[in-house]
Amino acid sequence: MGAIYDKVLDMDHDLEDLEMQVVRYKPEGLDVLCRKSKFTRKELQIMYRGFKQECPTGIVNEETFKEIYAQFFPQGDSSAYAHYVFNTFDHDRNGSLSFEEFVMGLSVLSRGTLQERLQWAFNLYDINGDGFITKDEMTDIVSAIYEMMGRFSEPMIDENTAKEHVDRVFLKMDINRDGVITFDEFMETCRRDENITKGMAIFDTVL
Known about the structure:
Layout (H helix, E strand, L loop, with lengths): L2 H7 L20 H7 L4 H14 L4 E3 H11 L6 H11 L6 E3 H13 L2 H12 L6 E3 H15 L9 H15 L6 E3 H10 L1 H6 L2 H5 L1
Helix pairs in contact: 1-3, 4-5, 5-7, 5-8, 7-10, 8-9
Protein name: Kv channel-interacting protein 4-like isoform X20
GO molecular function, one term: calcium ion binding
Family: Belongs to the recoverin family.
C-alpha cells in the first residue's frame, strides 16, 4: 500500500465526535462502498475513522489535501502535483473530496488492475479533460513531479531534464504524429513498453 493509504489505516482507534458548526457529510453505506471499491468493510471502517480525524467535516478541500501530500514529500514542493491529483480524485469538480471519492481513488491506485491504473494516469495527464494529452499538459505534470521530488533527488533534475523527458516520452506515445496523445495511443505505448510507465513515475508519487 502507499503512504497515504497506510497513514489512514494506522488511525485505527476510536475518535470522539468533534462539535462542529457545519453540517457533516454522511458517507454512503459501507455495503455500497464495499461493492464499488476493492476494500473490505473492516478496512473502510478504519479508513473512515482516519478520514474523519484528518477531515472532521467529512470532506477535504484542496488546501488540506496539499498539506497531507506535503508531509510525504518534504524534500520538495508537492503543491502543484497535489493539485493535479486532487482534481483527478474530484470527479464532480466541486472543489472538495467526499469520503467516497477518496476511497474510489485509492481503490484504483492501490488495488486496481493495470488497465484501471493507466486509465487513472491518463486522466491525470489530461488536465483539461478533453480526451487528449498535449505536450504542454505532459510538461506540466512532469514538472510538478520533479518539483515534488526536490533538488536533492538523484540524479539531479532541472528544467532541461524535464523537457528532455517529455520530448522523449511524447514522441513515443504520439504514434500518428498529430501533436496529441489519445487514450488508445497512451494504452498501446504503455502495454508495449513498460519502461515508459515506470518513467512516468506516477504510481510511485501517488501511492
